[in-house]
TrEMBL record:
SUPFAM superfamilies: DNA/RNA polymerases. The lineage of its organism: Eukaryota, Metazoa, Chordata, Craniata, Vertebrata. It comes from the Eukaryota. This is Reverse transcriptase domain-containing protein. Transmembrane segments: none annotated. Residues 169-422 form the Reverse transcriptase domain.
């Protein structure tokens, strides 16, 4: 509506300016008409921006909100340049990823009828169909059939029954539609990689959503059957396990080494195109042996055979896919776990696996023993990878030593794999967390600080104009953008002395939410933002993770007991956390209220205080008046920003923040209590001073 009105106002001005410009481009009338048109265009852009921000709501339309935030994050001045790579080269590289040096594999499944079960081959029911559709995400790109998930979620009872009958026919006859075998691939450049190299693109498979629903139903049946049979070292895409738990598992093992006075050597194994290298015949053999269901194995074979793909760009031809698992398939992670479920556990080592990421560790009292044990361990892995046609990449595989021997801080591990010495990295990254020799997490905290600072720049674009955005939108965006990044895997590093570096960036996040100035006390703007301080949020998150450790049997640390304490300075996860016994929101408010130095200026609460429904300028003015830190003349003089010598208000009194509550020139007056309640008088005062304070 606003855009149509602006168009109606701009059109006459543009027609008049064009007519005058054609008559005489240098006349006073033409210049005046041009200035009027420029003002109208500027106002129209402003109105469109306000309308866009007013409609930005993370809770109702997060997809549109994220699209806007991504556009704000991009730099229109950066020219990506010409990319000298074709879709055909990318498609050829994907084919090469799945090729091995061996001849064609022919493996016959040796059936054992007396041990076979048929629990995975029973017909699907309507409850399973509805559950699968419910768990599928919306807002995803369609496959070749152009059918959106939103359409599937709105199917009526008759359509659901027809679809269920169709799926059961696919299951009974071991056949699927041809369109399901054809995949559209979008190639996405990996961060920081050379765009001219076809190897640097990550293939994302756009599969038909009906096929994904079918896969989801099969996965819901398969999961409970194979879960007890998967190796405990594998934490990828399994219920009760996640990245944070697996990182904690590894760091607690390293802490155990510190307590025992040992050196923990770790090899971070890199596999080349792990999913693309999975051999279908070998994998089907393993699927049969883990499920003992031949019919289900044939169903999986149906999903994988005779598949083809093309890279979408300028109509490239299809390529047949003989091996590999499509990245985008619902079943792919589980099938990969089955395919690698028999990987060896070398002697004197411990494995920490998440999908295709492997951290292989060993502990000893001296470096030489660690090097020897790791060299033997990767040699055992080579045999397994060769047998299963996986390609390890020694050039990208890294090693690191974790110890507290400062005299040997620069000592590098000498580990050889396939005739190549592995790179020693003093700051390896495992599942997104940067580690270091003594687990101080200094570099990780600094990197996180920079990430949060970059996201704060996006928030500033929401609030950087004179009219700003809705306060609730800014707060929700801040939690989704900045706080989520700052708190990734925080139970791992929440006791680090360098965590305060992350707090610096989050302080700025809350200043942006509230519009408070930099001299505002930290305690005040967190209360005005309705967000608990970062250290409180991290502690509650860590205690919540500890609760999972105690009560979730599938958690990697469940049942783990740390060794006796030898080093009083170490602050490992198991020693510094207690299981959370109340809801996280309640725990955050309680810890926040009990925090040392917490003032009674305003009661802690998670949620914006009254006044969040006001326009941005008024909201910002309210918070500056509430905190007592605004651009009043006495504050400007204190900060040496006042150009004139007098700190008197236009009414003749000393202009302090408290004076602004009841200045005679203001049409309204209020008390500090009214400011916190955002009464009509308080809002009127805030609106009057919005351009000053």
């Amino acid at each position: 509506m606003g855009s149509e009105l602006a168009h109606q106002q701009i059109l006459p001005s543009s027609v008049r300016y064009l007519r005058l410009f054609q008559e005489n481009p240098y006349s006073d009338g033409t210049i005046a008409a041009g200035q009027k048109l420029s003002t109208a265009l500027a106002n129209a852009k402003k109105d469109r921006w306000i309308e866009l921000l007013e409609n930005l709501d993370m809770s109702k339309s997060s997809r549109k909100a994220w699209q806007l935030l991504r556009r704000l994050d991009s730099d229109p001045l950066v020219n990506p340049g010409h990319v000298n790579v074709t879709p055909d080269q990318i498609a050829h590289q994907l084919i090469q990823n799945g090729k091995t040096n061996c001849s064609r594999i022919k493996m016959k499944i040796n059936r054992v009828p007396e041990l076979e079960t048929h629990q995975l081959s029973s017909p699907l029911n309507l409850k399973e169909l509805r559950e699968a559709i419910k768990r599928c995400k919306t807002g995803k790109a369609p496959g070749l059939d152009d059918l959106m998930m939103e359409q599937i979620k709105h199917l009526g009872p008759k359509a659901e029954n027809w679809l269920l009958k169709f799926y059961n026919q696919c299951l009974a006859h071991k056949q699927i539609p041809r369109a399901w075998r054809k995949t559209k691939i979008i190639a996405i450049l990996k961060p920081g990689k050379d765009a001219s190299n076809a190897r640097n693109y990550r293939p994302i498979s756009l599969l038909c959503h009906l096929y994904k629903v079918y896969e989801r139903m099969l996965l819901n049946q398969l999961g409970p059957v194979i879960e007890p049979k998967l190796i405990p070292q594998q934490a990828g895409f399994r219920p009760g396990k996640n990245c944070t738990g697996q990182i904690l598992h590894q760091t607690e093992h390293i802490e155990e080494g510190y307590e025992k006075g040992c050196i923990t050597g770790t090899v971070f194994v890199d596999l080349t195109a792990a999913y693309d290298m999975v051999q279908h015949r070998k994998m089907l053999h393993k699927v049969y042996h883990i499920t003992q269901d031949f019919d289900f194995t044939k169903t999986v074979q149906t999903l994988l055979e005779n598949c083809s793909f093309y890279v979408e760009f300028q109509g490239q031809k299809r390529r047949r896919q003989k091996n590999g698992l499509p990245q985008g398939s619902v079943l792919a992670p589980t099938l990969f776990n089955i395919s690698t479920n028999d990987q060896p556990q070398p002697p004197l080592t411990k494995s920490f696996i998440y999908a295709d990421d492997l951290g292989l560790t060993t502990q000893a009292k001296d470096f030489e023993t660690v090097e020897k044990q790791l060299t033997n361990a990767v040699k055992d892995l080579s045999s397994y990878y060769k047998e299963n046609h996986l390609k390890p990449n020694p050039a990208k595989t890294q090693v690191c030593a974790f110890h507290l021997r400062n005299r040997e801080a620069n000592r590098e591990l000498k580990v050889t794999w396939e005739g190549q010495e592995l790179e020693h990295c003093f700051h390896p990254k495992y599942l997104g967390v940067t580690l270091d020799r003594t687990l101080t997490y200094r570099k990780h905290c600094m990197n996180t600080k920079h990430k949060v600072a970059a996201r704060n720049n996006i928030l500033r674009k929401l609030t950087g104009s004179a009219w700003g955005a809705d306060p609730q939108v800014v707060r929700t965006s801040a939690l989704a953008l900045s706080f989520s990044t700052a708190e990734y895997a925080c139970p791992v590093w929440h006791k680090s002395a360098h965590a305060k570096q992350v707090d610096i960036a989050l302080n700025e996040t809350c200043r942006i939410i509230t519009g408070c100035l930099k001299p505002t006390p930290v305690d005040k703007f967190y209360k005005l933002a309705g967000i608990a301080p970062p250290d409180v949020r991290r502690e509650v998150a860590a205690n919540g993770e500890r609760k999972k450790v105690e009560h979730c049997e599938s958690h990697p640390l469940h049942g783990y007991h740390p060794p006796p304490t030898r080093l009083k300075s170490r602050k490992g996860f198991m020693r510094t956390t207690t299981p959370l016994d109340v809801p996280p929101a309640t725990a955050r408010v309680s810890l926040w209220a009990a925090k040392p130095g917490n003032s009674n200026w305003m009661a802690p609460q998670e949620g914006l205080p009254p006044g969040a429904n006001q326009e941005w300028a008024t909201w910002k003015s309210l918070n500056r008046l509430r905190s007592g830190v605004g651009r009043s003349k006495d504050n400007l003089a204190k900060w040496h920003y006042l150009e004139e010598s007098s700190t008197l208000c236009d009414c003749g009194a000393e202009q302090t923040t408290q004076h602004m509550y009841a200045c005679p020139q203001c049409p309204a007056s209020c008390t500090e209590e009214e400011l916190f309640k955002a009464t009509d008088n308080a809002v009127a005062v805030a609106r009057f001073w919005s351009k000053t304070i």
